[in-house]
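Input/output pair, single chain:
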Amino acid sequence: MIEETEARVYMTANQGRLMVRVWHSTLGFTTPGGQPTWVHIRLQVPARGAYRISSEAYHGVFGVRRLTLSAGSFRGRVGDKFKGIPGYIGGVELDNVILTGDVDISNEPDALGAPITAKVRIASTCRLTASTGGAINIAIQPDPSLGVRALGGSNGGAVRIAINEGAPREGVAREFKSQDQAESREYDRKPVRVEVRATTGHGNVSITSVPAAPLPPK
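Output:
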């Protein structure tokens, strides 16, 4: 029944920090027809300051838009859409996000794994790791002070790396059927550096340098 759908919010202040937890624990279905309920949760916070965000999602898109992240851990799981029938998740999106710390995005590695899309600006040296079974698209805002070291790999799709002033990296062990790796010229001398690793079991991988522009609306 639709009435069995539950969404909960927990908020507290701890040592001067606001902690917010939002979770959707139970999914209801229509009767007759057995169609799942669509649940949307939107959390708006002040844009100033840096945030640490962790998430775990089984259904729907998890998105972060126009925030600064000091740390991020995003997990996408494949649950049961119906009893005994694997479901899906809608993907992870970072839209115009500034990174000042490490971010790790990990979805299921099989064919049901959801896509990952990220458009980011790098403000401090960090790592961005993305792993899934679907497509990965990462766009990094170029900057003269930024060095990018990137590796993309797929066992079932194409890999494309096109970073600003990038050059192929030699001597990297091959891990995937399709793999590419590149880094900015004089990477080690750049004051700000980012290491990007994007791997997928089935989809395509794209890691590019793109000037600031919003992602296309859903």
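The two ends are 28 Å apart (CA to CA). DSSP finds no helices and 18 strands in the chain.
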